[in-house]
Amino acid sequence: MISRVLVPMDESEMAERALRFALEAHPDAEIIVLHVVGQPSSMMGGAAGLALADDTEEAAREQASDLFERAHEIAAESGTEIKTDVMVGHPARAVVNASGEFDTVVIGSHSGSLADRLLVGNIAEKIVRGSAAPVTVVR
């Protein structure tokens, strides 16, 4: 029986589909939505703010707040409560490292643009190959 499900999410429609699938397929499980914010760097888009923050963890939570709000809205549609977590690091590596604490991982196959599909598709592949738990890839 599956009791703990990890759903890594970014801002993509495919990530939302993955969450909806997890909620439907595992209605009695504890579902944890994980958002991974990139390593702090002055050259790296959204992670640039982390490099300047006094409290990196708090800055990462703030960056993830809109995404977590959306995840809670999706869960509420199913009448389900979810938990959220944020990590700082490389997305694939962070999910693979966390996967051992879960019975399964549910991820979206890719994001919207071609560049996102190549990057996130590559991340999904790395998670499938490295996860300690079975992985479901949602399209």
Automatic annotation (TrEMBL):
<comment type="similarity">
    <text>Belongs to the universal stress protein A family.</text>
</comment>
<dbReference type="InterPro" id="IPR006015">
    <property type="entry name" value="Universal_stress_UspA"/>
</dbReference>
<feature type="domain" description="UspA">
    <location>
        <begin position="1"/>
        <end position="139"/>
    </location>
</feature>
<dbReference type="InterPro" id="IPR014729">
    <property type="entry name" value="Rossmann-like_a/b/a_fold"/>
</dbReference>
<dbReference type="InterPro" id="IPR006016">
    <property type="entry name" value="UspA"/>
</dbReference>
<protein>
    <submittedName>
        <fullName>UspA domain protein</fullName>
    </submittedName>
</protein>
<dbReference type="Pfam" id="PF00582">
    <property type="entry name" value="Usp"/>
</dbReference>
